[in-house]
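Dear Dr. H.,

I hope your travels went smoothly. While you were away I took the liberty of generating a structure for the chain from your last submission, since the lab meeting agenda had it listed for discussion. I wanted you to have the full record in hand beforehand rather than looking at slides cold. The sequence, exactly as received, is reproduced here:
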Amino acid sequence: MQITRTAVDVASPGWDEYTGWGRLDAAAAVTTLTVPADLWIHVTAPTHVGPGQVIRYALQYGNRGGDARDVWITATLPVSLTATTPLTHHEPFLAAASGPYTLTIAATVGSDMSPGVELTCMAAITSVDIDLNLLDNTAQVVTQVGHLAFLPVVLKE
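The corresponding predicted structure, in token form, is as follows:
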């Protein structure tokens, strides 16, 4: 891809039958080589939450590769949660080898939720850069709804 991107066109513009993409320019191919972005995201949350409580999902993200432009972090919540913070965040530029950064998503658990229900939060990080490592650009975490019970403790003398 880099070779064709830096070829010097010698005939009609673009690819043609006789000269292909043009004359190869090895020096340009090497000197303009860029490292692709390698964005990652990880989601953490409490393991249990009670009905009517606010739950906070921590989205940690960063970039292990080259510079990334127009980066979007998006969280998806189950319908039983009401978001109290925005579910999307935009970074116009994420520098090479940067992070981790933390974004907190807060939501209220429905007061009618039954114990044992699992709430799954999904998060994704995307960029306009096309050479991304897609293996770790999404993450999810599961939290279980349960009633919280406080048991009094009596200390013996």
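Two observations you may find useful: The mean pLDDT is 84. Residues 1-33 form one domain.

With kind regards,
E. W.
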